[in-house]
């Protein structure tokens, strides 16, 4: 009895000696390492909030509307340095980084909140889906896939005509809409193509891609958004228009934004809805099947409807060639989303050879616009989109939306009196 009592006391002693060590160690460290918890938690929160609202006010002042992320960072750093010099705030580098991170995520959250509060409301689609609800879902691996495909974009006779393409896909419904007739497609995917005057490209695209998308067993439709005004080409704004107009028709779950000159060479690269924004045109023959640069987000991309709304779509301000895709890359990063890429073994594309169009000159403003992607994000995009639909043609192979994007801000050629008078 006595022995067993001794044993218990021994155990308690053992536990106390060995287990108090880590505690002592932590207490000891707690005193020597300067730690922001030396402020009471609320004080710290108030501090960050105050700083953030000051920064946010600064951004919202009219003259700072276009403040770049660099400027914002500078402002944040100045605030933090002021605190440090007063010796009443940040204690070490770790805490400094923490304050910076907290403030930037606060800014980003506020920007995103602005987007959500301010979001335009999507119209109710005419139809939600085209299949009976009780159908079995299509298989995870579509059985008709072929893998590597023969794609020839340089045929002497040129691509097939629109009517030949329609004949090849008899199950196409009006406007280039298709869905499997034997199972419930896994996804409803709108393919949006920004377009101007590229009929040969479009015919090659449709000739190959309809067949591929059908083997992938998607519920899909091809929307060609045709810029009919004579301003510089605005790829990003056309994508926004495509998004809104497509959503009016059907309850699309996701979008593939697709340049017309790219054709998929391997049907195993599925155009299904992605978990995170996806850059699909990974390996293109023109670039020796190598990614041009790590942050590239051009060519072909895909996003869910919700992600696109959260990002406020693309910017409307990129008139002419270049930069709009980099701006979207920034938006995605600011929204803390990741970018996914399919493997280069299947995400292989052939590009149709062509010259730069004269109406799509590089946009000289693209670099300065890219400096303030963040501060524009909440007010430049879906919620500021203005355009005029001139016509919607529901062809058998595709839906063509003729759109006037409005003025690009360039001075227009003046009409002279002579032009107005009939020539004699
Ligand atoms: C970058 C452009 C992107 C463009 C990419 C690839 O330089 O918009 O080249 O273009 N960014 C800027 O100009 C800021 S490509 O060679 O495919 O025509 O997507």
TrEMBL record:
Pathway: Protein modification; protein glycosylation
Pfam families documented for this protein: Glyco_transf_7C, Glyco_transf_7N
Domain Galactosyltransferase C-terminal: 278-355
Keyword match Membrane: yes
Topology in membrane: Single-pass type II membrane protein
Stored CDD domains: b4GalT (cd00899)
Domain of life: Eukaryota
InterPro entries assigned: Galactosyl_T (IPR003859), Galactosyl_T_C (IPR027791), Galactosyl_T_N (IPR027995), Nucleotide-diphossugar_trans (IPR029044)
Primary location recorded for the protein, binned into one broad class: membrane
Enzyme Commission number(s): 2.4.1.-
Residue ranges annotated for the Galactosyltransferase N-terminal domain, each copy included: 138-274
Subcellular location: Membrane
Residue ranges of the TM segments: 12-28
Keywords: Glycoprotein, Glycosyltransferase, Membrane, Signal-anchor, Transferase, Transmembrane, Transmembrane helix
Role: Catalyses the transfer of galactose onto proteins or lipids.
UniProt record similarity statement: Belongs to the glycosyltransferase 7 family.
Protein name, UniProt field: Beta-1,4-galactosyltransferase
Biological source species: Oikopleura dioica (Tunicate)
